[in-house]
Amino acid sequence: MGTPCHYALFDLQPAFRLDLDKLAVRYRELAREVHPDRFADASEREQRVALEKSAALNEAYQTLRSPPRRARYLLAISGQEVPQEVTVHDPEFLLQQMQLREELEDLQDEADLDGVAQFKRRLKAAQQTLDDTFASCWDDPAEREQAERLMRRMQFLDKLAQEVRQLEERLDD
User: Fold this and answer.
1) What CA–CA distance (Å, rounded) separates 95 from 143?
2) Domains recognised in the chain with CATH numbers
3) Which tens digits make up the pLDDT trace of 97-146?
4) What pTM value is reported for the model?
5) HSE (CB half, 13 Å, CA atoms) of 51?
6) Distance of alpha carbon 168 from its chain centroid, rounded?
């Protein structure tokens, strides 16, 4: 038995644009139905199945609520070969990555909380633009290669955003 498509679990059609509030509500409904506690008195097999369903539901939810993971998943289920390692054949973006990393290192060295907050706002805006561009690309099968390039950029910015959050926590302490 294959695992069901993440979208099918939530009764959704595969698409990049999702209503995340609706997704969260549906996730909570489904999570209650398959929560292992509801199967405490059930057979061992039923308990195992509930645990597996719960894990699959969590994985699907985490994937669909994250734009880079959702983009990667869409490319994968569309039959696009998406290699694990992130190689970006995109000199302009590589240069931008290096500049962003250097800027973040400077902010860290200076322990500049205001600067980090501004950096975070700019990063969020860049992520939103990238998400919108991917969404437009995704709707056009002729743009699949561009969609893959954008997904890689999304993954990079997502990783950078995690580093920014960690830096904020360190500077707050």
Assistant:
1) 24
2) 6-65 (1.10.287.110), 91-172 (1.20.1280.20)
3) 899 999 999 999 999 989 999 999 999 999 999 999 999 998 888 888 88
4) 0.84
5) 8
6) 21
Q: How many CB atoms lie within 10 A of CB 115?
A: 15
Find tokens 């999702």 and name the residue. Answer: 18
Nearby residues of 31 by Cβ (< 8 Å), 6 or more positions away: 54, 57, 58
Which is nearest to 72 in space by CA: 82, 86, 60?
82
The first and second tokens of residue 107, run together, are 């902010």
Give the amino acid at 96. Answer: Q
Residue 69: partners with Cβ closer than 8 Å, 6 or more residues away:
62, 63
The neighbour count for residue 97, using CB atoms within 10 Å, is: 16
What type of residue is 140?
D
